[in-house]
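Bumping with the actual sequence this time:
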Amino acid sequence: MSLDLVFYTNPMSRGQIVRWMLEEVGEVYETVLLNYEGAMKSPDYLAINPMGKVPAIVHRGRVVTECAAICAYLADAFPAANLAPPTAERDAYYRWLFFAAGPVEAAVTNRALGFVVPDGRERMAGYGSFDATMDVLERAVSGDRWICGEQFTAADVYVGSQVDWGLGFKTIPTRPAFEAYAERLRARPAYRRQKEIDGALIAEMQQKG
């Protein structure tokens, strides 16, 4: 019997972000694994995500794609998990969710691909420069609190994934504030469950060749 919440992913993808969010939510969900060679480009999946990429979720017939959007949607769909601030207090929540999805994602990807914004053309790039983006990100995660203060939220899942992955893949600089934030995130039970689940799936995929 199909569940109300279906998660389309590949363990070697940004689907790990959504898996972590789902584990934080704590609701039962169905996982559909898709390979890059064919399943992601199949007509059935393209009807869900025309981009032919993962992750995606379908919740009671509603399709949501894009990691930041999925994190925000799940926080609202399952309020008992307490993963979003009250509506009137979401300034920092929205600010950092979209900062990570926009400037951080673009700056890190461009740098990894070897693209450098030419001098004097920073205004054409939404993030200005890689260094400026990293400085702002560092200030956002500094201290011993979460992105929105005392409350851990979906914004920490998304921003934290960018920091955690960036440190692991050396795509963001190693700075004390980033390291400390990542350590707090890695201590969360839901983070650990996600790593165990996706780690086992990756090992299984590698064994099959």
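The tokens above came from a reply further down the thread. The first helix runs from residue 15 to 25.
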